[in-house]
Amino acid sequence: MNNNILAKEAAENFVVHLFSIVSDDYKRKYRSEIWRLFEDALRISLYKRNLQEAFESFKRNIPCDVSSFEAIEIASFLSNDEEYLSSVHDLLRSNLAYVVLLARHAHFKNKER
Q1: pLDDT tens digits, residue range 9-39?
Q2: Residues 6 or more apart from 32 whose CB is under 8 A from it?
Q3: Does pLDDT of 1 surpass 80?
Q4: Which pLDDT belongs to residue 108?
Q5: Domain count, the chain
Q6: Which distant-in-sequence residues (6+ apart) come within 8 Å of 71 by Cβ?
Q7: Which of 22, 25, 45, 104 is surrounded by the fewest CB atoms within 10 Å?
Q8: How far is Cα 34 from Cα 27, in angstroms, rounded to an integer?
């Protein structure tokens, strides 16, 4: 699969939902630097063996609302086949800043609706 397409899918179907489950209190507290903190926490989490473990690690590092609709979307994304998730994991590890930029764009585009 083309890396640009995979990056867009990862941003829109995983990373933007991951940002959405970060607690609103945390987002308010760190308003001016939330995207940097988010990216740093995700980068640290991606050192885990796979995307599921990275997700679990991320939830331990940043307060999240795992009962939200967005958490269900993440679980659905993580139910994709292992080869696809491995490709996404590798892409995130090597191109995280780009994928987070795509996710930020998607997030703000969704807020405008």
Answers
A1: 999 999 999 999 999 999 999 999 999 999 9
A2: none
A3: no
A4: 87
A5: 1
A6: 17, 21, 64, 65
A7: 25
A8: 6
